[in-house]
Amino acid sequence: MVSHNNVLPNQHFKKKWQFYVKTWFNQPARKTRRQNARAEKARKVFPRPVAGALRPIVSGQTVKYNLKKRYGRGFTLEELKEAAIAPKTARTIGIAVDHRRKNRSLEGLQENANRLKAYKSKLVVFPRRSKKPKQGDSSAEELSTVQQHDGRHVLPIVHEKAEPELVSIPEELKVPPLSTLPHAAVYKKIS
User: Fold this and answer.
1) Which DSSP helix (H) or strand (E) runs through 120?
2) How far is residue 74 from each of residues 48, 50, 124, measured CA to CA in Å?
3) Which of 20, 63, 89, 137 could bridge 127 with an S-S bond, Cβ 3.0-4.6 Å?
4) What burial class does residue 95 get, using C-beta atoms within 10 Å of its C-beta: 0-12 exposed, 13-18 middle, 19+ buried?
């Protein structure tokens, strides 16, 4: 109901409505375009992983997020030293390096060093010249069976699920509470 002595509402919402409608007819074509772009990128970077360089696992900052693990920018020089990889070499074999990051815990250092060792064990290094392979390059049969890693992350984070601990309830706690509460109230009044 209209209150007070105002002009009666008479908006013409049907004027030029075409200008205010957002259409999404290009969505299927965009999906195809993105898919083709991903395939093209994978073809360009072959045999390297589509996800890019290997990243370390770090803890989130602040009290709210420090229980969560996330991907960092790059491995520290200390972590690379622990895994026996030179920083210059690391960049050439698809490992991200961050010279500014510091290791503030031994657990984090060992976790990322183990991550590097696992990556190194699975790594297939292609020789620069197929006729003259150098030391450290993979063998010809390994190169023929190689597959490109197409996941979102190289060595993704595995979150461990905490299993609840089962505890046996003692007999004295198995008494139903509704039968004992009135007695406890009376006992408290008396004492």
Assistant:
1) helix 106-122
2) 18, 17, 21
3) 137
4) buried
CB atoms within 10 A of CB 185: 10
CB 123 within 8 A of CB 93: yes
- In what helix (H) or strand (E) does residue 71 lie, and over which residues does it extend? strand 69-71
> Over the stretch 13-39, which tens digit does the pLDDT of each residue have?
777 888 888 889 999 999 999 999 999
DSSP string, the chain: ---SSPPPP---TTTTGGGGPPP-TTHHHHHHHHHHHHHHHHHHHTTS-TT-SB--EEEPSHHHHTTSEEE-S-B-HHHHHHTT--HHHHHHTTB-B-TT-----HHHHHHHHHHHHHHHHH--PPPSSTTS--TTPPPHHHHHT-----SSSSS---PPPPPPPP-PPPGGGGS-HHHHHHHHHHHHHH-
Q: Could you read off the pLDDT tens digit of each residue along the chain, which spans 191 residues?
A: 667 888 887 777 777 888 888 889 999 999 999 999 999 999 998 888 888 999 999 999 999 999 999 999 999 999 999 999 999 999 999 999 999 999 999 999 999 999 999 999 988 888 877 777 777 777 777 777 888 888 888 899 988 888 899 999 888 878 887 878 888 888 888 87
